[in-house]
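Encode chain A's predicted structure.
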Amino acid sequence: MNLNRTLKHLNTKQTKQFEDSGYHSPVRILTAQQAMKYREILEAYEKKLGHPVRGPLRTKPHLLFKWVDSLIRNETILDCVEDLIGPDILCWNTWFWIKEANTSSFVSWHQDSQYWGLDTDKLVTAWLALSPASEDAGCMNVMPGSHLGEPLDHEDRYHDDNMLTRGQEIVTIDESKAVSMPLKSGEMSIHNIRIAHASGPNITADRRIGLSMHFMPTNARQLNAEWDSASLVRGRDRYGYFEHTPKPACDFDPTTVAYHKKATDAMREILFKGAEKVRPTI
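Encoded structure for chain A:
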């Protein structure tokens, strides 16, 4: 990271903290009213669907919802990402992370770099809260500096309440050193692909709704598959290692819905490569 170049949104102290500790939080992206608007759109769709978004609908929703596509192109988010990885940016994936009120869903301690097949340590995850993500609601916890050491040993420990595909979990970790990143509606946290992170259950009376967006430089490669896709959201792609995804013209644009099926099938293969057993959906 070149800390001497002109920064667009983050200051030198914030970028240095990200480089040294692997995370920064919070950053205000939306007003509470804007976040509520997006939440209402999502929940109106869920009402029509008859259940919360799950399975493939959680994965790459920017190919299904025009409003999610607009968020991966949000100028403030991309300014923060550019401050950390440079001006040529791909959005590799997006996920909804929804914990229902008073439920036991959790995310075990893990490092994304162990499962995503990407050869870059520059990927930045932006986690945007569309409802309050307090400690009681199960906000994210991170292990500062864990992105700088050797990869930690993981085991697949499938559990019905674990929101991770394989129940992947770090074998040994000292949780007393963890830092929590509570967020208000419309705020985001950012963290490095290699940092160890986790979150507990939601013991509040409201849903905890988050959207994660995963940004990487255009020179990143996918090592776990011959084909993968990403959205070019800023700058130029001089490498062409990922097929560029189409932009939805409207929610559930037939073109991007068909592409979503291909892209999520590929994502499933990437995430489960090397797993002893496989769940039916991601």
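Residues 32-49 form the longest helix (18 residues).
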